[in-house]
Amino acid sequence: xxxxxxxxxxxxxxxxxxxxxxxxxxxxxxxxxxxxxxxxxxxxxxxxxxxxxxxxxxxxxxxxxxxxxxxxxxxxxxxxxxxxxxxxxxxxxxxxxxxxxxxxxxxxxxxxxxxxxxxxxxxxxxxxxxxxxxxxxxxxxxxxxxxxxxxxxxxxxxxxxxxxxxxxxxxxxxxxxxxxxxxxxxxxxxxxxxxxxxxxxxxxxxxxxxxxxxxxxxxxxxxxxxxxxxxxxxxxxxxxxxxxxxxxxxxxxxxxxxxxxxxxxxxxxxxxxxxxxxxxxxxxxxxxxxxxxxxxxxxxxxxxxxxxxxxxxxxxxxxxxxxxxxxxxxxxxxxxxxxxxxxxxxxx
Amino acid sequence: xxxxxxxxxxxxxxxxxxxxxxxxxxxxxxxxxxxxxxxxxxxxxxxxxxxxxxxxxxxxxxxxxxxxxxxxxxxxxxxxxxxxxxxxxxxxxxxxxxxxxxxxxxxxxxxxxxxxxxxxxxxxxxxxxxxxxxxxxxxxxxxxxxxxxxxxxxxxxxxxxxxxxxxxxxxxxxxxxxxxxxxxxxxxxxxxxxxxxxxxxxxxxxxxxxxxxxxxxxxxxxxxxxxxxxxxxxxxxxxxxxxxxxxxxxxxxxxxxxxxxxxxxxxxxxxxxxxxxxxxxxxxxxxxxxxxxxxxxxxxxxxxxxxxxxxxxxxxxxxxxxxxxxxxxxxxxxxxxxxxxxxxxxxxxxxxxxxxxxxxxxxxxxxxxxxxxxxxxxxxxxxxxxxxxxxxxxxxxxxxxxxxxxxxxxxxxxxxxxxxxxxxxxxxxxxxxxxxxxxxxxxxxxxxxxxxxxxxxxxxxxxxxxxxxxxxxxxxxxxxxxxxxxxxxxxxxxxxxxxxxxxxxxxxx
Lengths: 348, 509
Description:
A: 2 domains; B: Rossmann fold; six-stranded mixed β-sheet; 32% helix
């Protein structure tokens, strides 16, 4: 079996297995799986409004997925996408509420603020890794909590006067579009999806087509050989974290400038950053793969909301199915072994 | 005839590729049977068939005359076949005993009876003259000792037939001597041995018979005492092989590399290069002879910028380069064929094309304004692959997919093509067959004839004697003697490498 085919088949089989095991669980707990999956489908694609919502949900997923994937390609595990996402969200909204500028300046400025914030947030673990070999997983996890609480503090005490929510951003900083909304029966669909798609292309181009990407990939595969070839391993480690953080920060801007238009005090993590890990994993850390797996996760997330309404299946079951899919993707090695064995027998 | 193993007309295919084309190998009881072939000739495939890792498409295997089907390594074990792999399969953090009993633990009431196990290990090791410390950790013992542990592992499992896969590739000359002694002891104790190798000298020394395979086909089996290295080599390669590399006298000119009072520490902080002085001139090959661990690796790493130097001076073409970045040193005209091709030389998960521009990707024509030009990169790769006879399915194949010899040829091609003034070759022929070795030696001498300086580090005295114009002997981080290969012999070099003073201490460093 060609490598390409098996790398496409593996995630598909993982998804199918997740669905099958989900069916078994639903049957065991007395729900009708057919009705449930129908509800899931209808909730995602049954109505143009839902489809608009799916695309809206897919947007931050793509960017969070790219963030995880980019670091991963350079051999780093950025668990801090959630934190970078939060500071990006905050920075975008902060710029969005604080200035009165023409849209052509204000919107890009807010977006750039989110990118810079996310990049800076990821720069710290990158620097610590490069300079002192501190493991990035630990630092990024810690930085998530720092991000959560600092942004809560800033929203409460700096941007607002002890409120739990900022004002709406100025119209000049919004990603929302009357036209897109009207097209989708007034969903919250916004222009962000275009940014996300451009970022997919950008990541592919950067990694696969530039000299910088050549260095990043070399460091990802073999630091020793990269060092031998005269590349600066440390510089590339820091750079990869910064770019990864930039994607994550941008994902935050999608929520801050698009979906919500404000920032709130959060009791806990939003989960987008962590879902990004699953998106990247299912997408095999390539930009095209991330694009498709973000669509899947977005559809599951949005479609799930319809399952309790239409089929009486509790929301939690959908989380279980998503978890199962991730489980089977993570154990894709097993699937690959079976695929190999299956095709070997087929040849004989 | 009492054959313990007969592999008759074995055929193994991988897709369209025939790795073994009706090969026959018959092992007599109590003999050392060498299996000789170039890299990629199908030796390992054949042995993996015997060991149950691959299923043959045709042919049959008989053990002591009985037809058997070996579908997995456990069956091979049960039939008394044991394999000593080239890359050791040991758990570094376990002791010698723990490694040996792994999978066959002696238990007492649910926990391992380590005392009894150690006793058994000691018994076997004494019986076969394999001295090991049963309580030592694998990570603390030498490579030679690790290999003995691998051998003990097979003996502990009751192996009667031992397969050695390139056993000497990783050993020092001293350890090779010990191994040869061990092989002879094993035969005396009634074992039979298949020795996979492409080192003719070793075959001549220990083997009784030798089966030659070339490009997947069995060429035949010869009695070693009725043949000679030249005949074996031509059987293996399919043409005459020149051992003594032809070369004109060197015509050294100005100094290219000057190392003065260099001090380098290793990872543990121990000074391993200690005020070393060395010079290499244009148009000559200087060989560094020494026992592994006398500072060779650190010296090269210091010159190439991969390791920090403590003090001293490293000049290339008169330019001070100590503690500069590898990029700066590369651009100053230094080429480096690294000792460990997998660790440093290649990015195994990159296609060959990208590997061929590993140091020059940022230069024109391979990139422009920071964007790679794949057309030029792959043109370059195609050219080097052809010029240096790198056998690869295509320039798009991952470096991982190539055999060691072809990986090495690719690295050498890349380094020579950059046309460096100083070429550092660290064990450039390790693990390669005679054909590839001949090729590489020729290329090194060609560089020299073009007026380049070549620094060769090797643990193979033959190679050092054969290729070098001057031999610098390194001992405990110092160059203790510089000798002319024409005026010395292995005996003298061996003594110098072991630290004895040269009679005429007038050796000019």
